[in-house]
Design a protein that fits this description.
This protein is an alpha/beta fold. Helix content is about 40%, strand content about 20%. Strands 2-5-6-7-8 form a 5-stranded mixed sheet. A 3-stranded mixed sheet has the order 1-4-3. Strand 3 and strand 4 (about 95-100) form a beta hairpin.
């Protein structure tokens, strides 16, 4: 039976091979951060809105505003693809790894191409597409491609940005958000090699070197001196 490896675990490997090996091979996880409850709430609300338009085969108003000629993709497996523990899956036979990842949404353009969509909540003045965001989208694009779907290289990030001007609705206790859509052109040519390297790392009996940029390993190495 193939070993399951999530999109987030591949990202962890890219961040730090040692942290990845310790977590997946030995079950030693990094200390958990604060739960992103606001992000989860925004994800839930956006999915509810886009599901309404998915059912009616109509574009969401934010898609119309940004002149995106597409509709939310209606597929029997959409809820499975969005579930954290199932997601979109592909058995990578070369490594015998079952790679999976849970998407936020998928849109379909007029060419019949699927476009990966990711929701992001932010309170920053200037929202940006970080490298980790880009890799996340590219893995989803790769997974859909491996499942024989026609996939557009263009995906979209839907940013729900806190409107700090309006605050909490002037005493109404309703925090306001503005929606912005940013396109991103993905290139998933790196994914195959990354999967192969994660497998090689998992097969090692000794832990690999940590990334020079890993703050967790820097802390552990500093503590070990005392």
């Amino acid at each position: 039976m193939p070993q399951k490896i999530s999109r987030s675990k591949i990202e962890l490997f890219l961040e730090c091979p040692r942290c990845f090996w310790l977590e997946v091979k030995k079950g030693v996880k990094r200390p958990s951060g604060f739960p992103f409850t606001l992000n989860l709430a925004v994800d839930y609300l956006l999915k509810q809105e886009f599901d309404h338009h998915r059912k009616n085969k109509t574009p969401h108003p934010v898609m119309v505003t940004h002149m995106i000629e597409a509709v939310p993709f209606d597929h029997p497996s959409i809820d499975t693809w969005r579930h954290n523990f199932t997601g979109i899956q592909f058995h990578h036979k070369t490594t015998d790894l079952l790679v999976f990842g849970a998407v936020d949404d998928i849109w379909e353009n007029k060419k019949g191409e699927l476009m990966v969509v990711d929701y992001k909540a932010t309170g920053a003045q200037n929202y940006k597409i970080y490298d980790s965001y880009a890799r996340q989208m590219e893995i989803y694009q790769w997974l859909l491609t491996q499942n024989k779907f026609k996939v557009s290289s263009t995906g979209y990030f839907v940013f729900a940005k806190v409107n700090k001007t309006e605050g909490f609705g002037f005493g109404k206790a309703a925090l306001s958000f503005d929606l912005f859509v940013e396109p991103y052109t993905g290139d998933h040519s790196w994914v195959e090699k990354a999967i192969e390297n994660t497998k090689k790392t998992l097969d090692q009996e000794k832990s690999p070197d940590s990334s020079a940029e890993c703050e967790y390993c820097k802390y552990n190495n500093s503590v070990a001196k005392y």
